[in-house]
From TrEMBL:
Regions crossing the membrane: 20-37, 76-97, 104-123, 150-169
Major subcellular location class: membrane
Protein name: DoxX family protein
Top-level taxon: Bacteria
UniProt membrane topology term: Multi-pass membrane protein
Keywords: Membrane, Transmembrane, Transmembrane helix
Signal sequence segment: none
Subcellular location: Membrane
Amino acid sequence: MIALYDRTAQTLNASADSILPTLARFVFAATLMFYFWNSGLTKFDGSPFTPGVGGYAQIFPKAMEAVAYDISQMSIFHWAVVVAGTLAEFILPFLIVIGLFTRFAAFGMIGFVIVQSLTDLYGHGGIEHAETLGAWFDGLPTGTILDQRAFWVLLLVTLVLKGAGPLSVDRLLSRNR
């Protein structure tokens, strides 16, 4: 019985480097890519380089409230952060899905999710709502921040550690080197 278990484990280990990253990219495409793209679409007026009220309000909620949602009062710093964040919501998911510079894109998405979560908690007041924050080990996997985003980060860490897998632009580029 132990020998059978060991052979099965060896077979699974040998296939993990191909299956895990490919599956992780598929799950990302199926569950998160359009979430981020739709979010990015709410942040600009006409082009990603002309952020709208929605972009500033989502990323700098307290600053926008302080200026009565008048984007003309926001600084060049605010503009640059909103534009960079909006572009990241389109570019990083696209790179992950096609498997190009996957480790860097996944690492960037981890940073993005952390900043997004902190903004949701402290900028939008989610920290005051237990159902938004969630709690680990509480038997309820529905908390938006601690529960759901932990799964997002786990998926992205898989891509950082394992790369894009065999069906990727990264693999094509590495073969041509």
